[in-house]
Amino acid sequence: MDVAELREDTPGCAGVVFLDNAGASLVPRQVHRAVVEHLELEMRVGGYEAQDLAEGALTQTTEQVAGLIGAAPGEVVFFEGASQAWSQALGAVELVPGQRVLTTTSEYASNGVGLLRVARLRGVRVQVVPDDAEGVLDLGVLEAELARGDVGLVAINHMPTHSGLVNPAEAVGVLCRRFGVTYLLDACQSVGQWEVDVERIGCDLLSATGRKFVRAPRGTGFLYVRSGARLGEPLLVNHIGGEWSGAQEYRVLPGAAGLASFEHAVAAQIGLGVAARYARWVGMVWARERIGELSGLLRRELGQVAGVRVHDRGRELSGIVTFSLAGRESAWVVKALREQGVRTSLSRPSDQVWTQEAAQGSAPAVVRASVHYYNTETELERVVELVRALA
Predict the structure, then answer these.
(1) I want to staple 91 with a disulfide (CB 3.0 to 4.6 A). Which of 184, 235, 260, 270 is the partner?
(2) How confident is the model at residue 80, as a pLDDT?
(3) CA 23 – CA 162 distance, rounded (Å)
């Protein structure tokens, strides 16, 4: 791919080094144009008629998003974000009192709260599988826990929000299939920067957002539900996911359709489809290689700056680079970099409650610099020099 062309498609690159793609990435001009055009249509004819007129574009969104993750269109439903999609999926998993839900130390704070809430409602227990020596989910321990039985769900993230860690999603899928356990994967940081194939991963459910590496508008997310996955009724049902069949009766639709919700920002959903098409045009194999090269460069160069500690761990690393600077609060570093035209973000200890560091009371706030394929080596060299000056 021509990086200059990708940057030309990304007006937000001008005048700023944007390294907050794990938060909300810069949308391409094609996405912006599609969203604005639909909003203008709504202004002229109203939201309902505009949606009717956009039926083809919405069908394209479903097809493009499904194609991005290797799913069938009928296995995908849309939400306003990954957290909403993940929560709807969790609420539909059949869990009985006494069962265990296995998760990872690096789980998102929102997911952790959701798991504990369902544990309280359903009488199940959340069990955190420890990390191995390299800092990723310990597959040996996971296998042993699955073999013990009484596991109703394995719910992990592919890539956490607070480090460059990559969990072994495919290996987890192999184990879940062997033991017949439902597998929910949060892929909100991996879709758009890695090739994600639900068949190869072997998950039953996968949630993702549009605003991160997919480069779609905020307020977009989606859920994959494997055809034939064993699910119960979701905690929240409406007349889209269910049918009112009598004064005191209703029927939940099978599969992904039963988890769908009614209201969506149609313009944003169309933008998600354009962003998914753009991601497929870029190519996820190339995107992964490009992001890996850039993040590897940034880690190496930061690691050579006196006083800098890089916090990423794992056998494979994502495009999320986390670091801290001795003698400086990470929030101060984020602010200082912003004043120099560099956009990073702050990862707080509250995002990592189940890590070993948090358990020991030593989890630090860190600077999160998340690269995308449209970043350049020159930009990253400038960031390293700015950090060196701050040190």
Answers:
(1) 235
(2) 94
(3) 11
